[in-house]
Amino acid sequence: MDQHNTPAKRKGRWKLFAVLLVCASPLLLSYLTYYVIKPAGRTNYGDLIDPRNHPIPQLGATTLDGKPSGLEQFKGKWIMLNVDNGDCQQACRDQLVQMRQLRLMQGKERERVERVWLITDSTPLDTMLMRVVEGTHFLRAPADAVAKWLPVEQGGNAADHIYLIDPLGNLMMRFPKNADPAKVKKDIGKVLKASAIG
Question: Which region holds residue 178: left if phi is over 0, alpha if psi is between -120 and 50, else beta?
């Protein structure tokens, strides 16, 4: 009898396989739900973006005091992303405040979400605005590098949208210009509920 393949060893292998499958199933199911299965009818408000085509690139980003930095530091968390120049007119301000509120509305799940403002020029920021959106991470990045990475609605620009980046570092959703906060909240809640990561 082959001592290397006893019934006890085979049974042990199956148990190990079953444990691994149970541990991996939440991640596999969330991946299948959002990237493979195409449910009948549109179930999301934001536009889904194929994450395989939009990983976080090397943007040459810096902190406000000029130190090299990047979105990679937030891997492992969901990222709500706003893009605009430092002048940040009313639409930009509204988006930053909306991101703050959207995160708060996720309740106990809010700790899984970070907020980032990618600033595409060297304009000094309004200190009052920085206080209002406290908790937002401020990064400066070249406008051309940002424009090459972020898909926009036809005729629009990146400043029109709030983007969502998954914990693996892939862009996965873009919300429309002048988005309905209640619908954005629902989409973010769905991805947080379905995902075992981040």
Answer: left
